[in-house]
Backbone:
């Protein structure tokens, strides 16, 4: 008889800002959170490091090249354990792709409005506030 299977799915996300202090967000194409705005990111593939996964996911979902830095925080959403990394954008062109229907830079007013109208993935605003990671603009 086999032991219990770990059903936790390791995921990564990227927290990136533009030169004006606006936060990079994507509109999710698929569940969980389809149609809502979120940080870009996704699953860590087998044999992949978090760093490699962040670079890949950011490129796939936003068209941007990044260098991941430190972990800003970790959240658990259902069976998904998401490790969000500070990222520095080094190139690329902002374009929604892969698991995103839209991608944009959002300032503090945008983010607050998205939270108030339910357009943000559940608890994202509170989490970013607790991590001191809200847009600076």
Residues:
């Amino acid at each position: 008889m086999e032991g219990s299977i770990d059903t936790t799915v390791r995921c990564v996300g990227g927290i990136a800002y533009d030169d004006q202090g606006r936060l990079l967000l994507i509109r999710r194409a698929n569940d969980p959170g389809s149609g809502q705005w979120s940080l870009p990111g996704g699953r860590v593939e087998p044999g992949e490091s978090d760093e490699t996964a962040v670079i890949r996911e950011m490129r796939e979902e936003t068209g941007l090249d990044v260098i991941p830095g430190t972990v800003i925080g970790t959240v658990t959403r259902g069976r998904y354990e998401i490790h969000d990394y500070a990222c520095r954008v080094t190139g690329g062109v902002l374009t929604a792709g892969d698991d995103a229907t839209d991608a944009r830079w959002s300032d503090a007013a945008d983010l607050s409005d998205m939270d108030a109208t339910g357009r943000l993935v559940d608890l994202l605003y509170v989490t970013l506030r607790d991590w001191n990671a809200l847009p600076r603009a």
